[in-house]
Every structure is written in C-alpha cells, then in structure tokens.
C-alpha cells in the first residue's frame, strides 16, 4: 500500500523523455520547474522544442513557487483504467500558475474527493514520491492553500 | 474569389446497419465496402467509376485497398484528414469536394468505417505501462479517456456563462427522441426522458451523466461527391456543398490543456470563414447537425457557430426548441452520435442530405440549408454547409 492519491498501477510517466526530463528531475527534489524561453522569456507548459512566441530553440527551465489557483476541474466516477476499478470518485484539477505566465498544469486535488471544488481557489503544490516505482518518480499534486 | 461554394454536390449516401460496439457480424473493411456500395446504389453509379477516397480519424480502410477490392478503374485521389475521432468528418467531405472542384478527380467517396469489436474501444484508457508525450502529464493523474480530456473545458464554460445541466439534458433528449423514429438508430426502442437522464450515473461530475456521452458503435457510412454541373444527372435531389472550413483556434493543440481559448471547441476562428464562404448566416440554417461525443461539446460548438448565444443557452436549449418538426432549431434529427450511431459524425452528413431531399424520418420544414459541425474535441476540427439548388 502506498501513500499516493490514486491506486498504484496507472501508467507511469516517461521520465526519460529528453524533452521533459528536467521537470521530472526537479520534481524528485521537491521543486516545481517550468520551461521558459531564454530568447523572449515566454513560459511554456508542457515543454516544447521551440518557443511558440519567438521561435528560439534556446529553452531553459526555471523553478517557480508552488502556488496556483484552480482554473477548472473534474470529478471522474467511471473507471477508465483497471487500476481505478472500485476506486473513485477522485478529483483532477487544472491549476494555473500566476508566477509562471498563467501556464496550466494538471494534477489531483488532494483531500476528500467528494467535497465541492471552487474555481479560482488558491492551491499549493505537494510532491508525491513514488519511490518504489522503477525508475522512481515524483508527481506534483495540489492541495487547497 | 477562390471558393468551393456551389462547385460540387453530394449525390449519393450509404450506410450499413448500425450496431452496438462489438456486435457487427462483419469485419471493418467489409463494413466500409457495404457503405460505399450502398452509396453508389443510391447515386445510381457503378462502383468501378469511383476515382477517389477521403476519410479521417485514421480510418483503417486504406484507399488503395478499397480501390482494389471494388475494382476501381483508376484511382486519382486519396486523402486522410489529420486528427482522431470526428474532428475531420466535414473536412473529409470538403477534401473530396476540393479534389472534384479542382479537377483532380470526378467521383470521390468520403467515408468512415469503424468496428470497435474488431479493434480497440475509445472509452477506455491506454493499456500501455508507460505514458509519453502529453500523456505523461495526464495519465498518472487518472486523466485518460476522451470524456476526461474534454470535461474540464465544459466545467469552465458552464461556470463562465452560468449554464445549467438542463441545457445539456435538452440536447440529449432531442437526440434520443429523434432516434425513436429512425429504423437504423441503435437506440430506437430505448427512449429517454428527463427523469431517466437525471437518475443516470455520473461518468464525470459536474456535467457528464451517462446520457451526456455518446455510444460506441460498429458500422460504416459514405457519401459520393461529384461536380455540380453533373449533379442533376443522378436520381436524387443534389445537396450542394456551399462551404467547408477546417482547422482550429490559435494554438488549440497546445500541450497539457494550455490552449489560449480553453473553454471551447476550437471553432471560434473557423466558423466565420465557414459562413463567409457559404454567403449565409446562422439564421439561415434550417437543419442543424452537431457532433456529440459529449453534450457539452454540442453546447460549445453551437455557441461558436453563432447558432445559440451563451447568455441565452439556459432559455433556448429546452427540448421543445430542439425537436423536429416544429422546434425553433431541430437538432440531430436522426439521433446523432448519442442515439443513432457513433459513426464519427458521418451519419450527420447523411442525415443532412436526407433532410435536403425531404426524405428524413424526422423531416424538418425549412430544409434548404444544412450545417454539419464535426467533432469538437480533437484538432483539427471541421464544419460544412450544404444546400439545395434553391440556395445556390
């Protein structure tokens, strides 16, 4: 039994993807890191090979504060994967990051999955390690601030 | 001015029996052949004379193989519209029309074939152990089905405009009501009422009841596109292609739900081009067929095409306004993806042609002009306006 929000057995993130590896490495260290263009300063999420604004290929990563607000959400009931059979409901939140150009991230909203969710509510990043996975990884999750 | 308006027409439509997913006795490729042969019969043409194929949604029935199996004399055009699901349904018809209008081909089939029993279903997540690309930021959070990919757009749209569940319920009720008169509708004999809708289980809160979600089906459907100057040589009243538009909004496919126009269905920039080409307005559309993978997508697509105003959606989207024949805007008059068949929207094109001909089972009165709106979730998306000779 693990301490993760969702049951074990869901697809694992490909943390070896060269485009996203800096993000996953930072998450292991408890940091939220988002892609940022060195050419024009535009934030991008998820990571791209090119800046959509200035077309620079010189894309860097910046640590950002783990503060966001709920932009939208859903509460799935129907299991879409065998690992979720008999589980649920659970909450998936779309969180925008005011400190990173309002890019949006998907995560789970930790806590009672049956409570009402308020769009606009401030949330705080929580790092959820999956140490026994091979390779180990850490998910960025969210809780009400 | 460069335009597709009035240069081509649909002169034949065909479909298979529609089945619940996994129930087709026929292989997917055979379903495609049946639908195409039926469309040829409807048009009174010999399948040997087809010279092109256009499809979408990564259809597995390959154009070269279809041409060989049908004994096509000379294959002159084959085309696949990018994107999964039904985003490309109208684009495939438009691509067929573009080939015909530019002289690349003379008789092009636009079709879709789908046997989910033979292949994988859509409503389940991937069985792969590792998620890459965009999915690495979604799947580990339990976000993987089409409904889930779309749900947060609907949540935000409903929130922004104060739209209530009853508006979505009206869309579902209209589709199920229309299916009851349609002999080929999979949900014929399974009527829906408000109480049954309200009592149905949640797929996803806050806006996806079971009956807000489409079926998954097996079947195939096809239309035949020819030059307008030959359209009157065929047995049925032609449906002229007045406009097709495809594409999406600025950065609609931005990763991890970062498209700038998030609460929407990708038609905001496309719809004005569609009406410009057709030289018509939303008020001219007597026939409205709008792709429903989920009712929330219908709502956003109708709004983006100017057919419903977001601030009037609660008042306008009531069942009686959407019912044929007397509603103010009869919607999905054959039952659509929800209740006729999830034929990735090609059933909506066929129904538009039947309405223009005057042969639909739920015939509307104002039947000179039809709008068909493709799948609102994937990118690119597409939509189409068809009309009778009277509006040429």
Short description:
The complex is a heterodimer of chains A (145) and B (392). Chain A is mainly β and 145 residues long. Chain A has one helix and nine strands; from the N terminus they run βαββββββββ.
Count structural domains of chain B: 1
Could you describe the largest sheet of chain B, including whether it forms a barrel? 10 strands, mixed
What's the pLDDT, averaged over the residues of chain A? 96
Major sheet of chain A, described briefly? Answer: 5 strands, antiparallel
Structural class of chain B: alpha+beta
Task: Say what oligomer this is.
Answer: heterodimer
Mean pLDDT over the residues of chain B: 96
> What is the class of chain B in the CATH system?
Alpha Beta
Number of domains of chain A: 1
How many strands of chain B?
Answer: 13
> What separation lies between the terminal Cα atoms of chain B?
16 Å
Order of helices and strands of chain B: EEHEHEHEEHHHEEEEHEHHHHHEE
How would you portray this structure in words?
The complex is a heterodimer of chains A (145) and B (392). Chain A has 145 residues and is mostly beta strands. Chain A has one domain. In chain A, 6% of the residues lie in helices and 38% in strands. Chain A contains 1 helix and 9 strands. Chain A has a 5-stranded antiparallel beta sheet, covered by helices on one side. In chain A, strands 3-2-4 form a 3-stranded antiparallel beta sheet, covered by helices on one side. In chain A, a hairpin with a 6-residue loop joins strand 8 and strand 9 (137-144). The longest helix of chain A is centred in the N-terminal third of the chain and has 8 residues, at 21-28. The radius of gyration of chain A is 16 Å and the shape is globular. The model of chain A has no long low-confidence stretch (mean pLDDT 96). Chain B has one domain: 3-Layer(aba) Sandwich (Peroxisomal Thiolase, Chain A, domain 1), CATH 3.40.47. In chain B, strands 1, 2, 3, 4, 5, 9, 10, 11, 12 and 13 form a 10-stranded mixed beta sheet that branches. In chain B, strands 7-8 form a two-stranded antiparallel sheet. In chain B, helix 5 (165-179) crosses helix 8 (295-304). With 392 residues, chain B is an alpha+beta fold. The mean pLDDT of chain B is 96. Chain B has helices at residues 28-43, 63-70, 89-101, 146-161, 165-179, 194-199, 270-278, 295-304, 313-316, 319-322, 336-339, 346-357; strands spanning 8-15, 19-20, 52-56, 77-81, 108-115, 130-131, 202-205, 208-209, 217-227, 239-247, 287-290, 369-373, 381-387. Chain B is built from 12 helices and 13 strands. At the A-B interface, strand 1, strand 5 and strand 7 of A face strand 6, helix 4 and strand 7 of B. Strand 5 of chain A pairs antiparallel with strand 7 of chain B.
């Amino acid at each position: 039994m693990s301490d993760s929000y969702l049951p074990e057995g869901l697809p694992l993130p490909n943390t070896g993807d060269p485009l996203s590896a800096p993000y996953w490495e930072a998450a292991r260290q408890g940091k939220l890191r988002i892609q940022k263009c060195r050419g024009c300063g535009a934030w991008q999420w998820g990571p791209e090979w090119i800046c959509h604004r200035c077309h620079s290929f010189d894309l860097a990563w910046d640590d950002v504060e783990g503060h966001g607000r709920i932009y939208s959400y859903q509460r799935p009931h129907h299991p879409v994967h065998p690992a979720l059979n008999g589980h649920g409901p659970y909450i998936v939140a779309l969180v925008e990051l005011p400190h990173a150009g309002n890019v949006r991230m998907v995560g789970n909203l930790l806590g009672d999955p049956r409570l009402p969710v308020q769009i606009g509510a401030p949330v705080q990043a929580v790092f959820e390690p999956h140490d026994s996975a091979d390779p180990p990884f850490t998910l960025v999750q969210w809780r009400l601030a | 001015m460069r335009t597709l308006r009035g240069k081509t027409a649909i002169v034949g439509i065909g479909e298979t029996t529609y089945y619940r997913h996994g129930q087709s006795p026929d292989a997917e490729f055979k379903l495609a052949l049946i639908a195409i042969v039926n469309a040829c019969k409807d048009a009174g043409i010999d399948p040997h004379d087809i010279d092109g194929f256009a499809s979408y949604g990564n259809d597995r029935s390959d154009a070269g193989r279809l041409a060989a199996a049908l004994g096509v004399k000379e294959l002159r055009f084959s085309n696949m519209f990018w994107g999964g699901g039904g985003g490309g349904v109208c684009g495939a018809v438009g691509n067929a029309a573009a080939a015909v209008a530019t002289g690349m081909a003379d008789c092009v089939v636009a079709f879709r074939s789908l046997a989910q029993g033979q292949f994988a279903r859509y409503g389940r997540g991937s069985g792969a152990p590792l998620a890459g690309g965009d999915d690495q930021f979604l799947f580990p959070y339990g976000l993987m089905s089409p409904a889930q990919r779309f749900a947060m757009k609907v949540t935000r749209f409903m929130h922004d405009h104060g739209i209530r569940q009853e508006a979505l319920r009206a869309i579902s009720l209209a589709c199920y009501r229309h299916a009851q008169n349609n002999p080929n509708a999979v949900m014929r004999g399974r009527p829906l009422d408000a109480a049954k809708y309200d009592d149905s289980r949640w797929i996803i809160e806050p806006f996806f009841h079971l009956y807000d979600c489409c079926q998954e089906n097996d079947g195939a459907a096809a239309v035949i596109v020819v030059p307008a100057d030959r359209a009157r040589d065929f047995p049925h009243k032609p449906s002229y292609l007045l406009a097709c538009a495809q594409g999406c909004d600025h950065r609609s496919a931005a990763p991890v739900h970062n498209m700038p126009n998030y609460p929407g269905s990708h038609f905001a920039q496309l719809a004005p081009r569609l009406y410009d080409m057709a030289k018509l307005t939303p008020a001219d559309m007597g026939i409205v067929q709008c792709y429903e993978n989920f009712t929330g997508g219908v709502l956003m697509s109708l709004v983006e095409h100017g057919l419903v105003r977001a601030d009037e959606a609660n008042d306008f989207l009531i069942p009686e306004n959407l019912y044929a024949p007397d509603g103010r805007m009869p919607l999905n008059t054959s039952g659509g993806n929800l209740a006729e068949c999830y034929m990735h929207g090609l059933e909506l094109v066929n129904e538009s042609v039947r309405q223009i001909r005057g042969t639909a089972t739920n015939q509307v009165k104002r039947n000179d002009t039809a709008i068909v709106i493709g799948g609102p979730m994937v990118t690119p998306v597409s939509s189409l306006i068809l009309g009778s000779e009277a509006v040429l």
